[in-house]
Each structure stands twice: as C-alpha cells, then as structure tokens.
Specification:
Layout (H helix, E strand, L loop, with lengths): L8 H7 L3 H8 L11 H8 L3 H17 L13 H34 L5 H37 L11 H24 L11 H46 L1
Length: 247
C-alpha cells in the first residue's frame, strides 16, 4: 500500500503497529504528536520523507511475513478489549519496570555521580516521571477505563460523577504531554541512552531500561491519544445524540 505523506503519523501506526519502529528510528513523534501529517513530522525530525516512506513500506512487508506481530486492529476492537489490553500489556510493564529501573538509578548515581554530574538531573527527572506515571496508571484503572467500559456495556453516557468522558481524557492527555517532555529530557541528558566508557554493567542496564520504558510509553500513549480517546469521545457523542432524539 502506498504511503500518503498527508496521512497523520498516528493513523499510520494505527493501521500497522510495526511502523512505530520506523518512527522510533527516525525520531518521529507518533504518540503525543500523532495528529501531525507524515510530511510535517518528517520535516520536524529532519528526516527525508522518501527515506522514511521507503522504510515504512519495508516494515509493512516484513510484518506481512512475520508470525509474531500483533495484527489486532484496535480501531475496530471493543473499547473494553482495548482498555484491558492497555492494562495487561503497558500497565503491567510499567509496574514491573519503574521500581527496577529506579533501583538501577540509585546504584548508578551512587557509584558514578561524582564523575557524571548529569546523573543528578537524570535521577531527578526520572523520579518525577515515575511518580506521575504511577499516579496516572491508577487514574486510568480507577476512573477513565471503568467509565469507558461502563458506557460501552450500558450504552448510556453522562452517568459518571466525572461528567463527560472528555474530562478525564483531558487530564490524561495533559499528563501524556508531561511524560513526553520528561522522556525528551532524559534522552538529551544521557546522549540517547548511551553508556559512557567508564560505565559498569548496572549503568548499561539503566540505559537499556530507560530506552525500553520510552519505547513502551510511546506505544502506550499512541494507543490512547490516537485510538482509545477519540473512539470513546465519539461513542459518547453518539449515545448522547441518540438520547436527545428519543426524548
């Protein structure tokens, strides 16, 4: 399938999840910046559009031949299935990795902080990111996701104490933006998660852990900003419209 440069990067990843690897390689923001067209996103990342589109085509070909790629179309799945998937895959990953990477951070700061002054800020940024993510996951699991699931099951909108589903969605997307800022700062401070020449195995593990967290958060935020949130908002609007017609 030809790649249209006027298609948003979020839609491109929604069509084929494997494309996110291409965007990660070229530093193209497909999660918080998912509404940006591919042409504009390439310009912002300083990437050649022809090179990026060729890589996307190659990625699609490889995905077609692979047996292990998740081919679920989350644009068509139920909202219940999508929210459960996000919890099972991305929330589970973060709950496991946040404390593990935090332990690496404390050890590396203690052992290498004197020779790498930037580690103090790395630790500070990570601590803020971790605290916000942990709170964010709770709000999704206790507020937003149950609200969306109940709406889909009951086919009724507006019964939640939060009012419109757009209210918690707005909070979640603001926190996604904050996470994006923190991730960009971590990448800057660590020179793209590069272990220095004097880095020990724990330092390597820290850099690998941060890189893996960034990758998972990008995919997590993409599925919410570009698929779950707009679908939930549109579903609520359709339910409210139907209720008005009946009254």
């Amino acid at each position: 399938m030809p790649i249209d440069l006027q298609t948003s990067v979020g839609n491109l990843v929604s069509e084929q999840i494997g494309r996110l690897e291409v965007f990660e390689t070229f530093g193209i923001d497909y999660c918080c910046g998912g509404k940006t067209t591919l042409m504009v996103a390439c310009e912002a990342a300083g990437a050649d559009p022809a090179t990026v589109t060729a890589a996307l085509v190659n990625s699609d070909t490889a995905a077609t031949a692979a047996d292990t790629v998740d081919t679920t179309d989350w644009r068509a799945a139920t909202l219940n299935a999508l929210t459960n998937h996000i919890v099972e895959k991305h929330h589970t990953f973060m709950k496991r990795e946040l404390p593990r990477v935090g332990d690496f951070m404390a050890k590396v700061l203690s052992a290498h902080g004197a020779n790498h002054a930037e580690l103090a800020e790395v630790a500070e940024v990570y601590a803020g990111l971790r605290a916000e993510i942990e709170d964010h996951l709770k709000k999704e699991e206790q507020v937003l996701f149950p609200m969306i699931q109940e709406m889909e099951i009951t086919r009724e909108a507006g019964s939640s104490h939060c009012g419109s589903v757009n209210n918690p969605i707005g909070v979640m997307e603001h926190e996604h933006d904050n996470a994006g800022v923190a991730l960009r700062r971590l990448r800057e401070l660590t020179d793209d998660y590069t272990t220095p020449a004097d880095g020990c195995p724990t330092y390597q593990a820290l850099m690998a852990g941060l890189a893996a967290m960034e990758r998972d958060l990008h995919e997590h935020i993409h599925k919410e900003n570009n698929i779950l949130h707009p679908r939930a908002a549109a579903y609520e609007a359709s339910l409210l419209g139907a209720a008005r017609q009946e009254s």
